[in-house]
Predict the structure.
Amino acid sequence: MKRILISGFGTVGQGFCEVLSLRKDWLMERYGEVPVVVAAMDSKTVAKCPEGLDPLALVERKQTSRKVGEETYSDSLEVLGSVDFDILVEVSPTDIKTGGVGLKNIEYALSHGKDVITVNKGPLALEFNKLMTLAKDNGCRIRFEGSVGGAMPIINLCHENLAAEKIRSVRGIFNGTCNFILSKMDNGQPFEQALKEAQQLGYAETDPTNDVEGYDTAAKVAILANAVFHRDVKFSDVKITGITGITPEAIAQAASRNMVIRLIGEISETKLEVSPRLIPRDHPLGISGTLNIALIEADLAGPITIKGRGAGRIETASAIFSDLVAILDGRAEKLC
Ligand code: HSE
């Protein structure tokens, strides 16, 4: 029976516990057993039980007391070292400057031969190839479907269904907050008000500068460049322009030509860019709202378009669950 340790027990960690519980019977039917959560940590507290904790009780406790456990800790690596686990589900908030505690946790888990599932963009955008090498050298796996596009299945689609394809380019909208703001600005709403609404909906990053300056999209572009194009790039290699300079006048001018402005991330063998672009209103990349979309150009299959929810508690948990299933199926070897 696989033992799971969840680090960063925020909304996505809670969503994962809910999905584990919702799919309990399915897991039992498919594998004859259900993985157990042996520990869950938020930024200050930890709950542990070698026999397994009740996932819904963890959610309940976090929601009522704002703490996942009774025990406090100061060093997450000490907690990781004190728990017997097989899979680390790392869902701490993204720190795009240093990788933060998420990077330390992932490095620790991989170097101790534990599988990792993460949606934390910082460690992947900063140290992608180092982490893949660590996984390979220690005979374990790292999966990160939910790090790009949330529930929109882009990474596993490229690695599994499109495994034999040469992917020529990927262009897309990878930040729901920016797309929501730009869509609201299309209807005359001021930038600040639209950002506030996006924050209330729970889409924005802890520090929304990361959304509006294009850093969040750039992290996803760096992850795709490494994971899908097998390039060796870091976040700092991405050419980034955010949306803070987009004026209502620019939006109105675009509208007069039947165009919209959208923040596009683009990756190819030679390109690595995030910038606002003029998009014809009826083009697939002209979508409104919080959805993410990606236009993939594959050499044999040709153009493929995917669209889906790029954030959200249960949606992102769905992506984590798909990685868990890949690990339980033992088909999680070929990532790069
Ligand atoms: N802040 C991100 C967004 C969340 O708005 O898309 C998902 O990475």
Q: What stands out?
A: The pocket of L-homoserine is lined by residues 150, 175-177, 203-205, 211, 216, 310-311 (CB under 6 Å). The two ends are 27 Å apart (CA to CA).
